[in-house]
Amino acid sequence: MAALVLIPVGVAGVVVTRSVITAGVFRDTRDTAERIAYEMRAGALPLGAAIPVPNPSVDLIQITDAKGRILSTSDAARNLPPLSDVRPTARNRVINTSNCLPTECLELSAVRVTMFEDSPIVYAGRSTPDLIATRTLEAVVFAQVAVLIALASWFTWMVTGRALEPVATMRHELDEVHAGDLSCRVTEPPGEDEVAQLAKSVNSTLARLERSADQQRQFASDASHELRTPIAGLRAQLESAQLYPDETDVESLVDSTLRDTDRLEAIITDLLLLARIGAQTDTARERVDLAVLVRQELSTRCDKIPVEVNLAPGVVVEGVRLQLARVLTNLLDNAQRHAEHRVQVKVARQGGTAVLTVENDGVEIAVEDRERIFERFTRLDASRSRDIGGTGLGLAIARDVATAHYGQITAEDCEGGARFVLRLPAV
Q: How would residue 129 be classed by pLDDT, with cut points 50, 70 and 90?
């Protein structure tokens, strides 16, 4: 790349330098010839006498007649043949030219003394400067260009190496990442340039991969842990019926196996939902009015305890309607299982936050348990006898949906009961 720039610059430099030197030489020769012509017109310079040299650098001077015969010369040009056969005209009385004699090459100017046909011609010249007479100029310029190209290449190599050093570091760090441990991150260089942005993108990708792998491991762990009990129960009942067919109550066996099957289906459905939440980045989102969502969900339910509502209109969030509906359903199911006489749902707006609250008058949740209940398959001892039909995943699903919608769900103080509050960014 440096050569593509410097070589044309070098060629242009040679051309310009030659032009400048030549123009300077011709300016001196022309001035000298014009001065001699002026002195001849003034009668101050007799023909045949040695011509004085006004400019030491222009020492070759000849005066010829109209036919080219030499009339006078300077001392330096005394033994030289005519310097040039160029004849300026009355219309073009000054001509700059170059001419090579047997011994040397010259740069000279020819000036017509008068406008008459038989006017003498003054020739003033000097030897062609060595810098342009030989290839010295080209050699010097292109040597400089070669040095500059080498320096530019070295500098580019150094700068590129320094700039790409973080990329090499990232490559080595990425080589250390494997499926068994996705917690490694690449080093993010300071600044906001493209390399720093690349490092941040790589770390974001690794974080997403780690979350995905954690979800898969969590799913496998949860499935193996929670499905073992109902499957073992089903197997035990069926083996017992196979061993003692005469003592088996078929209707009771079918009812029991159907209950276990229903529980298996509920657990699998919830586990699959947990695995999908947050992983479906392309899921279409829409504007959801929370008050409308609550009314629609309540209209499809047949709860044993009536639900009181206090719904502020126009509280809108952006999200996946089915997932937000699942959060509401899980909170209502949880409230119905634990409530004594009252379940209440509120929707309000607090600044830029949409707030959905579900309360019940059941057992109050201890402060130390208010985070633990959002863990998977967690049930509080006080609620085991009342918590029939739950999978232990409802609140975990609600927490994951809230996080995927850039919100949060918490259990908060409630005198004489439990209160769950979902907060989401309002639009």
A: confident
